[in-house]
Design brief:
Elements lengths: L2 E8 L2 H18 L4 E5 L17 H8 L1 H5 L1 H5 L9 H14 L3 E6 L2 H7 L5 H19 L5 E2 L10 H7 L4 E2 L7 E6 L2 E2 L3 E3 L6 H4 L10 H9 L7 E6 L8 H13 L3 E3 L1 H5 L9 E8 L6 E5 L2
Parallel strand pairs: 1-2, 1-9, 1-10, 2-3, 4-5, 5-8, 6-11
Antiparallel strand pairs: 6-7, 6-8, 11-12
Helix pairs in contact: 1-5, 5-7, 10-11
């Protein structure tokens, strides 16, 4: 039986407060586990307006109704409104997710700061941002973080070795074809990468170039392909946990009909033999439906 690991990226205060409980309730009702990766520091979503000059950003805003998904208040955090500290305000609710049996890990400390800054950052900056996230995670959950999924699929050459330094055992930082061991300067560095293999819902909404006009049907057509493979699907608390919750349930039902086993990143990692995995560099590429470039599994 093939697996689909469900990785829930939680980007904002609103997503933590509203989207996460909705997703947890749905997953409990249908008996499915998932990995929730939290943004643990300040919510500076309003800073993202600086991406307006990136290729494809305006098109994504129009397609995905950003204001309705994130809320006007969230879009003002860091500009007209101070950025609330998500970990301090929502630590108890985050811990409750783990107490309900869901897997948890680190998405980032400051989502926008990481997404817009890590690619060009030096070792000291990257270590400091990761240290803040690791310490905030420990203060909330009382345990060491074992899983990291980079905000916006943005990384740099320092990240894999720093993940090892801070005890991260599973990383899901990039887009790609499947699990691999990351290479930096020709040498294996960092934990196993469980790359996101499927497009995200926000990359498909409103696209006119899909074989099926419906994003859910498109995703199901991808996973129905033969030969079938294991996948990682990244969803967002602000999207599937809000206006698209019913569509996400439809997607889960479809995958079960295709006889996929749905679960966590750790469930997928447990099926792998590291010696059998390819060694791949991490490269920067564009992804259809997403603005800018993201970290991807190289050849």
């Amino acid at each position: 039986m093939r697996r689909i690991a469900l990785k829930v990226d939680v980007d904002t205060l609103r997503g933590t407060r509203e989207g996460v409980p909705r997703l947890a309730a749905l997953l409990e009702r249908i008996g499915v586990n998932a990995t929730f990766l939290f943004s643990l520091g300040p919510d500076h979503t309003g800073w993202a307006i600086r991406r307006v000059f990136r290729r494809g950003f305006i098109g994504k805003v129009r397609r995905t109704s950003v204001v309705s998904q994130y809320g006007l208040k969230t879009l003002l955090y860091g500009t007209l409104l101070p950025g609330p500290h998500i970990g301090r305000q929502c630590g108890a609710s985050m811990k409750h997710v783990a107490q309900r049996g869901f897997e948890t890990g680190i998405h980032t400390y400051d989502h926008v700061r990481w997404q817009d800054g890590v690619a060009g950052a030096d070792l000291a900056w990257t270590r400091e941002q990761l240290r803040r996230a690791v310490e905030q995670y420990h203060s909330i959950f009382g345990s060491r973080a074992l899983i990291h999924g980079a905000a916006g699929w943005q990384v740099n050459t320092w990240l894999p070795s720093l993940q090892q330094e801070f005890g991260i055992e599973i990383a899901s930082d990039v887009r790609g074809k499947g699990p691999f061991l990351p290479c930096v300067a020709g040498r294996v560095a960092g934990p196993v990468q469980l790359s996101t293999t499927l497009p995200t819902l926000d990359e498909l909404i409103g696209r006119g170039d899909l074989s099926s006009g419906d994003p859910i049907e498109h995703l199901l057509s991808l996973t129905a392909a033969e030969p079938r493979q294991d996948h990682v699907y990244t969803l967002h608390a602000e999207i599937e946990g809000a206006a698209h919750l019913a569509a996400f349930e439809q997607l889960l039902t479809g995958w079960r009909r295709q006889h996929y086993e749905l679960g966590t990143l750790t469930d997928l990692r447990a099926t792998l033999r590291l010696a059998d995995l390819p060694r791949c560099p991490i490269v920067s590429r564009t992804i259809p439906g997403r603005s800018g470039t993201v970290a991807c599994q190289g050849e």
